[in-house]
């Protein structure tokens, strides 16, 4: 279980790095202040998910390993491609969390199963948010005024 949880620590750390890179890319694009804040906020949120796992592993008598990270994708051909990547990544994280739950149940590690339920719910929210953003960008297409409104509105999309 510890090895599987440490693999999730890596995934959460890579998520944080990926969203940090997306935020840096968005920050140099004209007029994407809201999108920039969105990506930076999500980078920090993923870091907090990683820390929550690290604390859990250590508190349960294990040893949480701080992982080395691969360089994330740094540039994107469009805002839509960045959000497509975000959605695909969130689906991958959800699959990983579901796998952890399965392992915990196979091991009858009910404490870890209970702990992971927070991540299950979090991933449902993350996937929905990413899907909603992609749907909106699909509707907008190349409309600059739509992109302006998207950028403004995204700052309040996930203020939960």
UniProtKB/TrEMBL annotation:
Keywords: Cytoplasm, Iron, Iron storage, Metal-binding, Oxidoreductase. Pfam families: Ferritin (PF00210). InterPro entries: Ferritin, Ferritin-like, Ferritin-like_diiron, Ferritin-like_SF, Ferritin_DPS_dom, Ferritin_prok. It is found in: Cytoplasm. Signal peptide: none annotated. Its main location: cytoplasm. Its EC number is 1.16.3.2. CDD domains: Nonheme_Ferritin. It catalyses: 4 Fe(2+) + O2 + 6 H2O = 4 iron(III) oxide-hydroxide + 12 H(+). GO terms for biological process: intracellular iron ion homeostasis; iron ion transport. One of its GO terms (molecular function) is oxidoreductase activity. Residues 1-141 form the Ferritin-like diiron domain. GO terms for cellular component: cytoplasm. May alleviate iron toxicity in the presence of oxygen. Belongs to the ferritin family. Prokaryotic subfamily. The lineage of its organism: Bacteria, Pseudomonadati, Bacteroidota, Chitinophagia, Chitinophagales. SUPFAM superfamilies: Ferritin-like. This is Ferritin. Fe cation binds at residues 12, 46, 49, 90, 123.
């Amino acid at each position: 279980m510890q090895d599987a949880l440490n693999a999730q620590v890596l995934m959460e750390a890579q998520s944080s790095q990926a969203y940090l890179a997306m935020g840096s890319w968005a920050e140099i694009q004209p007029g994407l202040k809201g999108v920039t804040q969105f990506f930076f906020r999500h980078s920090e949120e993923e870091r907090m998910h990683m820390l929550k796992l690290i604390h859990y592993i250590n508190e349960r008598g294990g040893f949480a390993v701080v992982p080395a990270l691969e360089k994330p994708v740094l540039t994107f051909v469009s805002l839509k491609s960045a959000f497509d990547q975000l959605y695909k990544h969130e689906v991958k994280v959800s699959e990983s969390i579901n796998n952890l739950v399965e392992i915990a149940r196979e091991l009858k590690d009910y404490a870890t199963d209970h702990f992971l339920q927070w991540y299950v719910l979090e991933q449902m929210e993350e996937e929905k948010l990413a899907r909603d953003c992609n749907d909106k960008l699909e509707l907008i297409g190349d409309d600059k005024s739509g992109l302006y409104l998207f950028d403004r509105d995204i700052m309040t999309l996930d203020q939960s």
